[in-house]
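[Discussion] Sanity-checking designs against the backbone

I'm trying to build intuition for which residues belong where. Below is a structure token string of 157 positions. I'd appreciate it if someone posts a full sequence so I can compare it with mine line by line.
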């Protein structure tokens, strides 16, 4: 749910108009609209670069990992998931909250990786690498919007 939908739903449940604090929050959100769109565009346009460079950084830190042992299918699956997480971060930036990440159930994702034998410590490092590459492609204002969602992913693993 976007910050706009959330504010309206909260106000409606309380059977009241939006408060001045809520309107100010929405105004701030709207004022950042162009920056949010820019983040989403940059993440989309550079998704493969972020995944490729992030993977290289990860493999330099964790060379003995299943995604780096010559099994192209495992590598492709890992990199597909990484691209998916970048897309989710872009959704969060556009929505102005972490609901897109919450909706996929990060706890469930973590449990799935554990059941597959993927070390969570490696996922945490991989997410940090993706964040590092992505932040290098964004302005400081854009990075301030996207960074917290990458951090949420990192914490989840």
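Best answer:
Here's mine. Compare freely.
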């Amino acid at each position: 749910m976007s910050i706009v939908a959330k504010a309206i739903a909260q106000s409606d449940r309380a059977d009241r108009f939006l408060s001045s604090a809520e309107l100010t929050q929405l105004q701030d959100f709207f004022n950042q609209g162009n920056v949010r769109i820019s983040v989403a565009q940059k993440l989309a346009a550079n998704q493969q670069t972020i995944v490729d460079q992030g993977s290289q950084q990860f493999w330099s830190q964790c060379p003995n990992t299943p995604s780096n042992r010559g099994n192209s299918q495992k590598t492709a699956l890992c990199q597909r998931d990484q691209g998916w997480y970048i897309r989710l971060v872009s959704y969060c930036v556009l929505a102005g909250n972490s609901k897109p990440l919450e909706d996929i159930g990060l706890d469930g994702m973590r449990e799935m990786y554990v059941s597959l034998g993927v070390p969570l410590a490696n996922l945490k490092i991989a997410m940090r690498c993706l964040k590092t590459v992505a932040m290098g492609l964004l302005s400081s204002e854009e990075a301030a919007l996207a960074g917290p969602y990458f951090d949420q992913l990192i914490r989840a693993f």
